[in-house]
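Morning!

As promised:
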Amino acid sequence: MSSDRIFGLIAAVVALAYIASATQIKSGFMTDPVGPKGFPLLVGSVAAVCAMFMVFKPDESPTWPELRTLGSLLLSVVVLVCYAYALKPLGFLVPTALAAGILSYQISPGIKSSIGAGLGLSVTLFVIFKYALGLGLYAFPKWLIG
Amino acid sequence: MEIDILSNLALGFSIALSPYTLFLAVVGCFLGTIIGALPGLGPSNGVAILIPITFALGLDATSALVLMTSVYYGAMYGGRISSILLNIPGDEPALMTTLDGYPMAKAGRAGDALVLSGVASFVGAFLATVGLMLLAPVLARVAFMFGPAEYFALYLLAFCTLGGMASNNQAKAALSSCIGLGIAMVGVDDSSGLPRLTGGNLHLYDGIDFLVAIVGLFAITEVFFFIESHGKDSSIGVKLEKVTIPWKDIWVTRWTMLRCTVIGFIAGVLPGAGASLGSFLAYTTEKSIAGEKGKFGTGVPKGVAAPEAGNNAAAGGALVPMLTLGVPGSGTTAVLLALLVTLNITPGPTLFTENPDVVWGLIATLLIANVVLLLMNVPMMRIFVRILEVPAWLLLPGVTMVSFVGIYSLSGSYFDLLLMVCFGVLGYVLRKLSIPTVPVILGILLGGHMETSLRRAMVLSNGEWTYLFSSPIAIGLWAAAVAGFIAPLFLRKVIKKPQRVED
């Protein structure tokens, strides 16, 4: 099955779910002729029609990356999600060094270059953001430095 | 009226020429050229990741605007360095520059190609700024006649033409616009005060910040693409030998530059069309004027000058509808619109009467930035060329970290960071399936306005929907929207977009 058909089906389901939840929107006391539901319903319907077009008239499928690369991509997403959660409680330096290092390794596998990229980016960016631009970042967890 | 423009311009220069503002303009131009030159970072990505940072710095509106527009213009200049030397276009309009720029560089004339394209960029951008100065106030007066019905049609036109041009499949372009519009609806509804489509998630009550979407779709998506290619696309390129000013080439291409400036400017002013169309039309027009013996595609100076003049003129032209109507013409102007909205400046006809200092300060900055860039680019070419050597394994993690810090400093919440990663994944899938991502951003930016104008129109007409077609302006816009959406279906069979030159 071609990629367009799969994506079209998913998009159609999402569009229908969107329409369904749009019908649940509550109107206030003062309503206008269109109301808060009208436009979301319109957008959802157009999206559903477009999605069906993709299902019935798909383009050629793109070349998807091989399994190993797909693994790298998945790992990167996981790293970014963890980084998002870690940035606040763990301070800037350690999570940034780890995340940057792992990403660097995914782009070009080299132990030395990745460690260098991780440490270098973490320290350089911290100095720039904190001292040159004056953003409120913490180097280490707050509980550690008190 | 001429006196008006001159006195307004004087006001603009009085703002733009203060030492602090001038300093910001020079810094912006320098940073922008570096960002543009970095392989894989185009003007829209570059400006996108810097907006949250600028916002966090707490600059006032004029300073931030000066800084970011200088970055934007600088990135347009810098983008051609990677197009010419590496055959890697930083964004879509730069693709045309690779067609003759890269062959010219391979023939040992890299320096000439770089300087010539710099001059062409200058001519295009400078004249387009003058055009903006003359046309924008006129259009702003016309825009005062726009009611909600006209605005609704105008937004529709922007989606139709942008989608029609950006994609090879109308259904995909329209779906992409719907994704953006659908996302824009999430959050508390302004008129009823009740939450919509939030799924009960408190983080979503304020809606989804368009900056989160922009940075995710542009910057994070780019990182995924580099991981997929393992950075293989970078680093091999043409060496730069000596840099001299090719007076002869500049003189020979003078009419080409002027013609392409006009073509590019007109393409840019059309809402939704933008710089890609400008550089494409400029290149193909010059190619057909020169004919067979023009040898376009083999590395001729005219083939370098044409798309650069057209591209930069279109970028200037695209500011006309962006400033007067609030409708961006391209991905990059969409990012600039995002900047204005972040700074609490609402583009539209009232901008010209209520904030003349912002508009004319911006125009004066554009003129100054152009001169600064031209002066900066020729002697400092070698420095900028060194930027190309930054390896992908250092650059892309850097871009990611800057994006994270920028978005984090906006709200200090992990939720926005997660959303940004989601947008990055979405952008990857969309681009893989050749679904354009710019309409998503346009949808998020304009969705609220589009809905409001529809609802206002219906209030005015008591629910009578024919009101949407009740004025000549509205009918014209609807017709243009339909034509803009359908025409590419037929044109695509006649005109083929040139492909990238292979080694």
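Chain B is about 75% helix and 0% strand.

Hope this helps with the figure draft.
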